[in-house]
Amino acid sequence: MSVESLKAHSVKAAWLQYDAVDAGPTGLNAFLSVDREGSLTAAASIAATPHTTASLTADLAGVPVAIKDNLATLTLPTTCGSRILEGYVSPYEATAVRKLREAGAIVIGKTNMDEFAMGSSTENSAYGPTRNPVDRSRVPGGSSGGSAAAVASGVVRLALGSETGGSVRQPAAFCGIVGVKPTYGRVSRFGLVAYASSLDHVGVFAQNVFDAALGVELIAGHDPYDATCSERPVPALRQSAVVTDHAQPLAGLVVGRPVEYFTDALDPRIHAHCDASLERLRALGAVVRDVSLPHTSLAIPVYYVLAPAEASSNLARYDGVRYGQRRSADGLREMYERTRTGGFGAEVTRRILLGTYVLSAGYYDAYYRRAQTVRELITQDFERVFADGVHVLFTPTAPTPAFRIGEVSDPYDMYLSDIYTVTANLAGIPAMSQPIGLVDGLPVGGQFMAARFDEATMFKAAAALEYALTAEGGA
Ligand code: GLN
Prior knowledge:
- By secondary structure, the chain is α/β, with parallel strands linked by helices.
- The chain has 2 domains: 3-251 and 396-472, Amidase signature (AS) domain (Amidase signature (AS) enzymes, Alpha-Beta Complex), CATH 3.90.1300.10; 297-372, no CATH class.
- Helix content is 38%, strand content 13%.
- It contains 17 helices and 11 strands.
- The protein has helices spanning 3-7, 11-21, 36-47, 54-57, 95-102, 145-152, 169-175, 209-219, 237-240, 268-283, 299-314, 332-343, 346-359, 365-387, 411-415, 422-427, 455-471, and strands spanning 31-34, 64-68, 106-111, 158-163, 178-181, 201-206, 254-258, 287-291, 392-396, 431-439, 442-450.
- An 11-stranded mixed beta sheet has the order 1-3-2-4-6-5-10-11-9-7-8, with helices on both faces.
- A hairpin with a 2-residue loop joins strand 10 and strand 11.
- Helix 11 (299-314) crosses helix 13 and helix 11 crosses helix 14 (365-387).
- It is globular, with a radius of gyration of 21 Å.
- Bound molecules: glutamine (GLN).
- Glutamine (GLN) binds at residues 117-120, 143, 163-167, 195, 307, 418.
């Protein structure tokens, strides 16, 4: 695999595919805003440049990309799938978006998402749900469902999403593509609209492991505009995704199988696909070892205390004065009330209430502080396993395949679809999902996780598994 295959997809081809799939009552509704004219002009100007210039040899010269609507862009709106930011255009650009553009990519549009990235199905968008390209009666996952659908349907081959608890990996699994959440601090969060800042990450969707690794490599690196962004040099991640030894590419690699991820909550057919993948990893030279991450069952409760707590504080800025929509009223207090009540959807309101409650005097110690303590225990579980000689962990990405639109109505049931993904956000470690098989025609995702800043080993394992599955025609 090389950058050339990514470059083979043109902006023109993107629009042809977009016109075929996105609009209409059964269309994907993957995009919230598009820039057809601007992107075609940018593509034409690249095509007209002499072949030797840097703009043409750049890694992503002329490559169409899609951006989740919570990453700030200069010309297109950034609505976060919310009414409260309808029509809002940011005065600055997210660092990850700027880096993609500087590598030659052309942004064709902003993608649909659960409002403020709260959800696992993209049904919480104020602009209607996105459909799964594999089966349009089903959800694409979420919250970055629009980006996942845009890549899975072939409109683009590379898209940015965001992750707070699985919002790239779970939709990647549901749509049958690759989705990566890098290490916390690997990619700048500047220009990513904050949901829960200590858990938020920018992530990448692609159709294969090489393209995903390339995407992460291009957006990674220090940024003075994000104090949590690491100064560590970024390795040539695309190199780690190239399989050179086709017999035993994973010789010497120790793969951990966390027993807590293979329980009754897991669809047995997904379990079987994971077992088959572990078998393939063995055949590729890896040693597979059962490991324990004993605090795993606490991850969902901890996440659903911490994420709403941070959200309730981050979303206080949408007050009708500084950003987006304002609903007028007689007094200031009434204006706040009307703006926020009318601007936020049900799930965002639920999270703000929940977050305000767990942070309030008298409950802070019982909920927020305790959740922070358990978060540390979850992080230590991972650290212990990686210090013990395990290089990567392999698990399912989600407990079920994509569900039908409207099928999961209880918010708590929806929260459970993140059961295998929130852990990596809590610990800040890199994690990714890739297709490993089908259940009744629906894609199944397998997840790799690695130690902090060791994306290279994660991509190496993922590329080898992808190679084996493709060679066998299995995925
Ligand atoms: N589904 C989870 C939530 O609703 C995770 C979302 C995300 O990663 N942004 O919070």
